[in-house]
Amino acid sequence: LLLPALWWPKVENCEQRNSVAFETYLSLSYLACLHGKRHLSSTTTVVTNLRLGSTHASMRFRIRYFTLLLVNIVGLFILIYLVNRKCIRLFKVDIPQVLLPRPQSGNDLNNSLKRKFSWDTVSIEVQEQLRLLSAIDWHRVKPTADCNHRFGYPPTSDEINLMETGPGAAWQRFLSSINSCEVYKSEEILQDVLQLMSKEPVLETAIMKGGTQVKLLITFKNGRQAVFKPMRFDRNHEADPNHFYFSDFERHNAEIAAFHLDKILGYNRAIPTVGRVFNMTSELKEFADQQLYSTFFISPVGNVCFVGVCKYYCMTGMAICGNPDMIEGSLQMFIDTPYTPFDRIISPYRR
């Protein structure tokens, strides 16, 4: 049985070694059959050792191959990194930063002007104005509105006609009179707008996004819009002193009172607000969009109610109900942004 091991050939690769091992296994199997079954176990042990040796050699070859491949990849990345750094150093161009000097005093300004033209040719008045301008720290100057010389924003859309006539003429005249210091100035135009808001027919109602309270965006037939805040508390209702100011419902009449107080003090900066009673069935529900319409229901006592969509106070237990379908609230003008430019300023009373 040991004779085949004497002529075991020297192989060059793992495939040849596996082939030789298989042929040796066949030879040993044949000899085992000749000498009896008692020799089969020892024969199998020899062949198994041969096959295991071949497998171990194959695994060693694979480990050496992948190790060499990994070393080559790491070396390639290091070479690319070094070449890139070398190229950056070779082709780097330093761009000089030019700093323009800002005149700090009248003497510096005089010297800079003398290099351009003769200072003697400039009049004394111009020289004095230039000296005053040079003393201003322009980096700290912020534009402020001059309320003694009010600037009215011109219309920013070609669709606006200042000579507009018809139902929306008063609204348009009001928007055109807004300036940098006042929302309104003419008492006549203001009264026309308040009268228009109190009786203009409704075209569409929708839920106004944002805020913690229920608000509706009312679109009138003249194309203008207003924000409707329904009544939550009766005028004689006293708030619990233990509650925070944001824990209760907002008062609709507080919006109206704030507008009139601002007007009495002469600021004229509050958005025009008027009280109005709506029919919840024929004015709000009939012209409501799908989102608002789906929140209407009839209370157990037969009143028309709706819930709305908001952050905190929009649930069935806090529904807004009519009496039986009439609801009072405040109606505040909605100023169209395309017509009047403005800045968004966060309220200091915001939570």
TrEMBL record:
One of its GO terms (molecular function) is metal ion binding. Signal peptide: none annotated. Its cofactor is Mn(2+). It comes from the Eukaryota. It is found in: Endomembrane system; Golgi apparatus. Its main location: membrane. Keywords: ATP-binding, Disulfide bond, Glycoprotein, Golgi apparatus, Kinase, Manganese, Membrane, Metal-binding, Nucleotide-binding, Serine/threonine-protein kinase, Transferase, Transmembrane, Transmembrane helix. GO terms for cellular component: Golgi apparatus. The chain crosses the membrane at residues 65-83. Residues 296-351 form the FAM20 C-terminal domain. ATP binds at residues 213, 229, 250. Mn(2+) binds at residue 250. The keyword Kinase applies. Belongs to the FAM20 family. PANTHER family: DENTIN MATRIX PROTEIN 4 PROTEIN FAM20 (PTHR12450), EXTRACELLULAR SERINE_THREONINE PROTEIN CG31145 (PTHR12450:SF22). This is Extracellular serine/threonine protein kinase FAM20C. It comes from Trichinella pseudospiralis (Parasitic roundworm). The lineage of its organism: Eukaryota, Metazoa, Ecdysozoa, Nematoda, Enoplea. The gene is FAM20C.
